[in-house]
Amino acid sequence: MVLYTVKETIEREKLLEQNDKVLVAFSGGPDSLCLLDILLRLAPSYNLTIYAAHLNHMIRGYDAQMDAMFCYDFCEKNGVNFFLKVIDVPKLAKQTGMSMENCARQQRYSLFYDIKNELGINKIAVAHNLDDQAETVLLKLFRGSGLQGLSGMDYIRDGVIIRPLLDVYKQEIVDYCKKNFLTPRLDYTNKQAEYTRNKVRLNLIPEIEKNFTPNIKQILSRTANNIRQDYEFIDEQAQKKYEDIRTQKKQDLVSLNINLLSNENPAIRNRVIRCAINDVLGNLTDISSVHISDISDLIEKKSGKMLNLPQNLKVYTFSERLIFTTREINNEQITYRYKIEPEGYTFIDEIKMGVRTSIMDKKDSLNLPTSQFAKVFDYDKIKGDIILRNREAGDKYKPIGLKGTKKVKDILIEKKVLPQDKYKYPVLCDENGIMWLYDYRIDENYKIDENTKKVIRIQFKKDME
Questions:
Q1: What is the pLDDT of residues 381-407, one digit of tens each?
Q2: pLDDT of residue 333
Q3: What percent of the chain has pLDDT over 70?
Q4: Which of 243, 245, 311, 307 is nearest to 283 (CA)?
Q5: DSSP secondary structure, 195-239, as one string
Q6: For residue 454, with 0-12 CB atoms within 10 Å meaning exposed, 13-18 middle and 19 or more buried, which class applies?
Q7: Domain 239-325, what fold?
Q8: Which residues form the Lysidine-tRNA(Ile) synthetase C-terminal domain (predicted)?
């Protein structure tokens, strides 16, 4: 029965493909032993290559050593490539300030992915079962999770983590082991009620089964599946909206149009916010619904307010934009000053951009493209050295096409340059003054006219050392 259920789950959810390399998270307990045994039985049908990995957390002393020995012996007997790692999780948890449970989980998955990357493994199989799913949904409910949390664990995550036992009850797994003469290792910490999950497993669910509904596990699992379907649809719509609302995307910064975001239904708006966070951080670890609510509230507040969130994430509003960034924000003046040769290339480390220059006859410059990042100047009008520096207080010049002079500060405000970027904004000068404000117009005094003979072309290139 268990084998049939697992095969059905694998086929329905497309957990395996032909010739997959599968790494089994193998603790030696009933769940992972059942999973490994079933995958070995299915291996010929899919032409699978099976591996197993075990992490000794050093939490249970001699028992943990015996767990590792059991796993090694089973894999040796069944021709499974076995990987073992020993880490003092209690010590590491104390050093990092993490909970023992989270630290152990982090180390396990770090091991799995290291092996995956080294061997080119396609799938990592973990042995979460239907009982685990029910417990997870209840725990998420108690924490006030949204649809994503209440959808429980996925059958497959990121195309890598697979959970073939997610439709199998714990008791079915225990019975499977007995029927197939498998003697798993038992972890006594699973019976310790001081852990929250154990309280749910040992006390709460039995109480519900006895006094309310005997099939609560199945109900919770089915509810999670229904919620997941709704969540995936809404999430797909939110992703499309995110692409429309996003105004800027860099490695460490994303900005959203506040007006467009404010007009969205809260269900979509909150997911768009999550998309932005994920783009900046690469994950949503430690980001809770409370944080999302705080960000949503921030939209209604005055520009300049800022939230400090986990993983060094900062969120603030600026000029009708909602900014997400991990950049350090301070008002310290970042100063730099570089001499730019008339012919050549100079990399400006402070702004991670290069400046390329070339001199030519006027007639040769007529068909050259210009943009906000590339301009041409009358070379003979330049006095002294060409200098690239950060903008300074009081900077002003006469942008071509405008009447009179204008302060650089005012231009940057109009361009909606972020506060932390204003201090290092590049300005090109000669001994007479500003020639060009980056990403804007050149000065009127350096434009090409009918008397121009020599032209210098100056172009900014991003991230080119």
A1: 999 999 999 998 899 999 998 888 999
A2: 61
A3: 96
A4: 311
A5: SHHHHIIIIIHHHHHHHT-TTHHHHHHHHHHHHHHHHHHHHHHHH
A6: middle
A7: 3.30.465
A8: 386-458
Residues in the annotated binding site: 27-32
Query: Which CATH number is 2-214 given?
Result: 3.40.50.620
How many whole angstroms separate alpha carbon 406 and alpha carbon 443?
Answer: 10
Position 465 pLDDT exceeds 50: no
Partnered with residue 250 across adjacent β-strands are 253
Taking a C-beta distance cutoff of 8 angstroms, is the pair 419, 371 a contact? no
Binding-site positions for ATP read: 27-32
Superfamily covering domain 337-462: Phenylalanyl-trna Synthetase, Chain B, domain 3 (3.50.40.10)
Helix (H, G, I), strand (E, B) or coil at 244: helix
| DSSP codes joined into one string, 420-433 | HHHTT-EEEEETTE
Q: Which two tokens stand for residue 369?
A: 């493209």
Measured between alpha carbons, how far is 343 from 331 in angstroms, rounded to an integer?
A: 35
Put simply, whether the predicted model's pTM sits higher than 0.70 gets the answer: no
C-alpha span between 203 and 186 (Å, rounded): 19
Task: Report d(CA 37, CA 16) in Å as an integer.
Answer: 16
What sign results for the dihedral spanned by CA atoms 270, 271, 274, 275?
Answer: negative
As annotated, the residues of the chain forming the CATH 3.50.40.10 domain(s) are 337-462
DSSP sequence for 4-60: HHHHHHHHHHT---TT-EEEEE--SSHHHHHHHHHHHHHHHHHT-EEEEEEEE-SSS
What is the predicted pLDDT for the residue at 210?
95
Following CA atoms 24, 25, 31, 35 in sequence, which dihedral angle do they give, to the nearest 10 degrees?
Answer: 0
